[in-house]
Amino acid sequence: MLRKVLVLFFHPRFEDSIVNKSLVKEIQNLPGTTFHDVYERYPDFDIDIRFEQSLLLQHDIIVWHHPFYWYSCPPLMKQWIDLVLEYGWAYGKNGRQLQGKYVFNCLTAGGSQEVYREGGRNRFTVNEFLRPFEQTAYLCQMHYLPPFVVHHANLATRPECLRFATAYKELLSGLVDGSLDLTQIAPSEYLNAHLYPTL
């Protein structure tokens, strides 16, 4: 069964990110995938709520693609969540529009995976920092999947960027054509670690 994937891309400095340029180049014209650059569409932060909600309704899997800013997301993404996921539409009384859909974060982080550990400089894992997004998905009755994470994003070489971009493309392609078993990947720490152990 074919699924439709919506990539909601939030990056205020996209032009400066070699990693994200590589990731986006591989997936923005991928069949079955809609790439939506939210900062490009709303440079003034004036979000068209009904348009965004209509996009969500048209897709089965949602990707929040963003840099990992201060253990969270860029400001426009927070505003998007606050405004688009309305009470009575996405959650709360009669709020079941997103029920059964899948969602996950694709993020780029400057630190290594080792610093995101108990005893590491950042003290907590990436998944622990992402709990608010997981809870948001839960409240909206969505299935939350592990993140796709690129560590050391600021230091990644072009060959490394290409490897991550290829893996990202293969991941989204597998989600579209149904060749990936979502029940198998759900317990993983990272989607890329489960599907591509060398990344």
Tell me what you see in this structure.
This protein has 199 residues and is α/β, with parallel strands linked by helices. The chain has a single domain (5-195), classed as 3-Layer(aba) Sandwich (Rossmann fold). It contains nine helices and six strands. Strands 1, 2, 3, 4, 5 and 6 form a six-stranded parallel β-sheet that branches. Helix 1 packs parallel to helix 7. The two termini are 28 Å apart.
Keywords:
about 200 residues, alpha/beta, 6-stranded parallel β-sheet, 9 helices, globular
Strand content: 5-15%
Q: Which ranges are low-confidence, i.e. pLDDT below 50, for 5 or more consecutive residues? A: none
- Look at the structure and name the CATH superfamily: Flavodoxin domain
Oligomer: single chain
Order of helices and strands: EHEHHEHEHHEEHHH
Mean pLDDT: 93
Rg estimate, integer Å: 16 Å
Main sheet attributes: strand count, strand direction, barrel closure: 6 strands, parallel
| CATH fold-level label | Rossmann fold
Distance between the first and last residues' Cα? 28 Å
Morphology call: globular
Q: What is the count of structural domains?
A: 1
Briefly note the structural class of the backbone: alpha/beta
Approximate helicity band: 25-40%
For the record, the CATH class is Alpha Beta
CATH architecture: 3-Layer(aba) Sandwich
Count of individual beta strands: 6
